[in-house]
Amino acid sequence: MALLFISENDDPSVWKAELAKAIPELEVRIWPDSGDAGDIEYALAWNPPLGLLASFPKLRFIQALGMGIDHFLADSDMPENVPLARLVDPDMVRQMTEFVIHAVLRFHRQAALYARHQGARLWHQEAIPDTRKATIGIMGLGMLGADAAANLDAIGFRVRGWSRRPHELANIESFHGRNGFEDFISETQFLVCLLPLNESTADIINKDTLALLPEGAYVINAARGDHVVEGDLLNAINSGHIAGAALDVFRTEPLAPDHPFWAHPNIHVTPHVAALTNPLTAARLVAKNIQRAAAGQPPDNLVDLRRGY
Ligand code: NAP
Ligand code: GLV
Question: Please, what are the domains in the chain?
Answer without folding.
Answer: 2-89+277-294 (3.40.50.720), 91-269 (3.40.50.720)
